[in-house]
Amino acid sequence: MATFSAPVPLHIPLICALMPLFLLATADAQEALTPTYHSAASEVRLVLFVTDQNGHAVEDLQQDDFAVVDDERVIRNFRSFTRSTAMILDLVVLIDTSASVRSQFQREIADVMQLLSQWPWSPEGNVSVLSFGGLDVRILCSGDCRSSPATDRIASLQNGGSATPLFDAIEVAAGLLAQRKQPDVWPVILLFSDGEDTISLLSFDHALEQILASGAQVYAIDSNSRGTPWKGAASKGRATLQRIADDSGGRCVPLSEDAGTIFNDVIGDLHSARIVTYSEPKSGSNYHSVRILPTHNLNLQFRSRRGYYRRPGCAQ
């Protein structure tokens, strides 16, 4: 199976070696040839969403209305706190084509086709569509997904294959987003799947690590049969999808919801998102857990990624 991933540097040591080459004639010459090294404190950048007790977006959120708990260190002094005004999206759509989603497969394809035809894309945005099933993860289109050849490839996808390389597919999607990562672009993965994985070379933990490293929010569309209840005890597949969505700061919804509603959730989040930045606190671990807590109104509900992997000298 041919997959790829973008390397994620988790620790980049700064090595300074001083090697005397020869004696300099003057102190000025010595100073001129002495190398100077600069380092900047790492900055953490969190995209967050906030709702009230009724699930409605909060429009007047102030930066003193919440605190960030980063590896048990309470952060109140932020470098910046802004409302996202950018409508630039880098979206990767993952379509499960394995036999386990046979009953919902045509609904998946119909929803993706509706997405491509009706989504209010900005000229700077990007969309890629990948499929996974059997032993393969295939990139069906990247950047040209609204063209006739691309939509024909998507519409002609066949359902089948007993194996499901879900975690490998997630790594490919996260790798695409990590390669194109820019500060003003919002990376999103729209995952159509029942959450089952039967053959991936990668583990669930590794796939989740790749998502967090890419900074993407995952909107998981559960393709389990409509006949099984969405509420109540979650199946293993549903639990997998819920964990991926929750840890990334996204959402998990049933495929039975109207496609327009699902896509409007993403657009609504994009409009209501806040971006907060702060200096990364010192920690002995490469992984930082993150929580956001209300400081005044305890009814506020916050959603954001639940952690990140440190990259010294870079924005997280």
Notes on the structure:
The protein folds into two domains: 43-84 and 273-309, no CATH class; 91-271, 3-Layer(aba) Sandwich (Rossmann fold). It is built from seven helices and 14 strands. The chain has helices at residues 27-32, 105-118, 148-155, 166-179, 204-214, 236-248, 259-272; strands spanning 43-51, 66-70, 73-75, 80-83, 89-96, 126-133, 136-142, 186-193, 217-222, 251-254, 274-279, 287-294, 301-303, 307-309. The strands form three sheets. It has a six-stranded mixed β-sheet with strand order 7-6-5-8-9-10, sandwiched between helices. α4 (166-179) runs parallel beside α5. Mean pLDDT is 82; it is low at 1-40 and 230-234.
Low-confidence stretches: 1-40, 230-234
Shape: globular
What's the CATH architecture name of the largest domain? 3-Layer(aba) Sandwich
Give the domain tally.
2
Helices and strands, in N-to-C order?
HEEEEEHEEHHEHEHEHEEEE
Q: Mind telling me the CATH class of the largest domain?
A: Alpha Beta
Distance between the termini: 31 Å
Percentage of helical residues?
25-40%
Largest sheet: 6 strands, mixed
Structural class: alpha/beta
Radius of gyration: 22 Å
Output the strand order for the largest sheet: 7-6-5-8-9-10
Mean pLDDT: 82
Continuous helix count: 7
- Indicate the CATH topology of the largest domain: Rossmann fold
Tell me the fraction of residues in β-strands, as a range: 25-35%
CATH superfamily of the largest domain, by name, is: von Willebrand factor, type A domain
Strand tally, please? Answer: 14
